Amino acid sequence: MEPIRLLIVEDDAMVLEVNRQFIETLSGFQIIGAAANGTEAIQLIIEKDPQLVILDYYLPDMDGYQVIERIRLRQKDTDFIMVTAAKDVETIQKIFRFGAIDYIIKPFRFERLKIALERYQQMLYRFRKEDELTQKYLDEWVYTERKKIENKPLPKGLNEVTMKQILQYMMKVKKPQSAEEVAKGIGLARVTVRRYLEYLVQTNRLKLDVQYGSVGRPINRYSI
């Protein structure tokens, strides 16, 4: 199956880049563009015809609901996953009524976004493969699959806020860093930072490069 063409709409440049880096670690997706406001998002959707849009609700010129509304009026076959801090019932109902396939509330764990994207990928594959779907399959999809969408807890002693702080710092420096350098950069203890760095390597969000010198112990350096 060809990669799913994906567009990211997010007005916070740092958040956009972190999300981009994470999505690029997943197979089967091709990021074809990014937009920082609603006007640009609508233009890119019309021009590039993405299959899926990761859409923030709070944008400088309009909200995410207005973006979806204008795309629906143009009868574009575009799917949306809303990723936003908006969590009031009225907003969530409006978004689902206009056909968003998922709604992820910030702050979120990347595992939650990963599940949403993989679920969409499986759904799209099934739609392309089959002419008809059975009630049994739909029931399994709606109920069994939704049970899997859970926020897996982080290892004991780690928290999402600090993890995102470290990821944002790594995006900013743009070069391999030791645990000591990261600790100094964000003002945390080296032992604490090392635990987060090791976890981020295990979950494929950072790369580890072990550098050996002529003397002394090797140095672990981490990069996006």
TrEMBL record:
Residues 5-121 form the Response regulatory domain. InterPro entries: 2C-system_Tx_regulators, CheY-like_superfamily, FaeA, Sig_transdc_resp-reg_cit/mal, Sig_transdc_resp-reg_receiver, WH_DNA-bd_sf. SMART domains: REC (SM00448). It is found in: Cytoplasm. One of its GO terms (molecular function) is DNA binding. Its main location: cytoplasm. Signal peptide: none annotated. It comes from the Bacteria. SUPFAM superfamilies: CheY-like, Winged helix' DNA-binding domain. One of its GO terms (cellular component) is cytoplasm. The modification 4-aspartylphosphate is found at D56. Keywords: Activator, Cytoplasm, DNA-binding, Phosphoprotein, Transcription, Transcription regulation, Two-component regulatory system. This is Two-component system response regulator DctR. It comes from Tepidibacillus fermentans.
